[in-house]
């Protein structure tokens, strides 16, 4: 039995989780090859590199999205739901204004601050040509079909579908929509698909049999979105964390994103301190923000 312990002392997001698993020995090239089975490789490219976070070397993973032939780069992790058009300008706590709704399955536009950054130089990256048309939105059911029809293993499909369902149900509940009416704006859908399917691929690649997780810090404060000021954690994030122990935090930021919350909620069998086990490997995944008092990283510990 191989146990993965998610030591999320600075919260969790999709890209932090993938970065940590890659740092713990995951094969990034194989990850890329497996993701090609989804047949959306012309919509994004992956980049990863080591960065320093308050004295700790951690791996920063990003999905750079190519939307309608333009090279928009999004440091990602979105899973917010909307039902009207993108094209809104979002204010993020890290001070960047974006002209699209990244990633949110939709009943209104959320512009949450994410645990990611926008200044990445990368060691790796594979470019694709993307001269193709896109639909404005991807429905939850379309994403399910995309995963089910792929050549991924059944185990990877099942894990990914469970995580996506968790997000879809939470978004639907918050916005008063049945699951079949939940839609993801395309840019964010690609982000979420890569994060979620990528996490499933790496978990099975690393032969993880059990996942345990620390209590989850979500941060405090408020975030500005188009429709006003919303509390941290975002409503859908909190919905997914029902039944999960949260850890009090004084950090004024969105530490745990919707995708991060879904990963913890679906994958972890239990929550608490580090279990009794023999540690074999440790990985650090970098978040985007930098905090003065602690390294903004996600630590994963794998052992028997």
Report what the structure shows.
Residues 68-102, 112-134 have a biased composition (Basic and acidic residues). Residues 68-135 are annotated as: Disordered. Pfam families: Ni_insertion (PF01969). This protein has helices at residues 14-23, 28-35, 140-149, 154-175, 186-205, 235-240, 258-267, and strands spanning 3-7, 44-53, 56-65, 90-91, 97-98, 137-139, 183-185, 210-213, 216-217, 222-225, 228-231, 246-247, 270-271, 279-286, 297-303. Helix 3 (140-149) packs antiparallel against helix 4 (154-175) and helix 4 crosses helix 7. It is built from seven helices and 15 strands. The relative contact order is 0.27. Strands 13-8-1-15-14 form a five-stranded mixed beta sheet. The chain has a two-stranded antiparallel ribbon with strand order 2-3. Strands 4-5 form a two-stranded antiparallel sheet. Mean pLDDT is 82; it is low at 69-135. It is of the alpha/beta class. The protein has one domain. Strand 2 (44-53) and strand 3 form a beta hairpin. The longest helix is centred in the middle third of the chain and has 22 residues, at 154-175.
Jot down its keywords.
7 helices, 28% helix, two-stranded antiparallel sheet, globular, 5-stranded mixed β-sheet, 304 residues, alpha/beta, 15 strands, single chain
- Strand elements, count: 15
In terms of DSSP E residues, the strand content is 15-25%
Written as H for each helix and E for each strand, in order along the chain, the element string is EHHEEEEEHHEHEEEEHEHEEE
User: How many domains would you count in the coordinates?
Assistant: 1
Structure annotation, total helices: 7
Question: How would you classify the helix and strand content by structural class?
Answer: alpha/beta
Strand order of the largest sheet: 13-8-1-15-14
- The portion of residues assigned to helices is 25-40%
Largest sheet: 5 strands, mixed
For the record, give the distance between the C-alpha atoms at the N and C termini, rounded to a whole number: 6 Å
Rg over CA atoms, rounded to whole Å, is: 17 Å
Mean pLDDT comes to 82
- Residue runs with pLDDT of under 50 for 5 or more positions: 69-135
Shape type? globular
């Amino acid at each position: 039995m191989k146990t993965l312990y998610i030591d999320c002392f600075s919260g969790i997001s999709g890209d932090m989780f993938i970065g940590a698993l890659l740092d713990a020995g995951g094969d990034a090239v194989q990850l890329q090859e497996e993701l090609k089975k989804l047949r959306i490789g012309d919509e994004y490219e992956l980049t990863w590199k080591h960065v320093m976070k308050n004295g700790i070397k951690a791996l920063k993973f990003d999905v750079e999205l190519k939307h309608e032939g333009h090279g928009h780069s999004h440091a990602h992790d979105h899973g917010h739901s909307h039902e009207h058009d993108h094209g809104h300008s979002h204010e993020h706590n890290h001070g960047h204004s974006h002209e699209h709704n990244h990633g949110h399955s939709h009943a209104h536009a959320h512009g949450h601050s994410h645990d990611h950054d926008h200044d990445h130089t990368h060691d790796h990256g594979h470019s694709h040509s993307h001269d193709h048309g896109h639909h404005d939105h991807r429905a939850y059911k379309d994403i399910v079909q995309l995963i089910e029809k792929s050549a991924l293993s059944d185990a990877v499909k099942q894990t990914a579908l469970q995580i996506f369902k968790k997000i879809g149900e939470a978004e639907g509940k918050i916005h008063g929509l049945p699951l079949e009416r939940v839609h993801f704006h395309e840019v964010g859908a690609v982000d979420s698909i890569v994060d979620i399917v990528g996490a499933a691929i790496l978990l099975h690649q690393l032969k993880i049999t059990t996942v345990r997780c620390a209590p989850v810090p979500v941060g405090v404060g408020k975030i500005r979105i188009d429709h006003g000021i919303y509390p941290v954690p975002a409503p859908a994030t909190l919905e997914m964390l029902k039944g999960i122990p949260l850890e009090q935090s004084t950090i004024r930021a969105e530490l745990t994103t919707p995708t991060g919350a879904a990963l913890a909620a679906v994958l972890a069998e239990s929550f608490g301190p580090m279990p009794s086990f023999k540690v074999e490997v440790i990985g650090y995944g970098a978040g985007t923000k930098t905090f003065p008092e602690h390294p903004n990283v996600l630590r994963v510990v794998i052992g028997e």
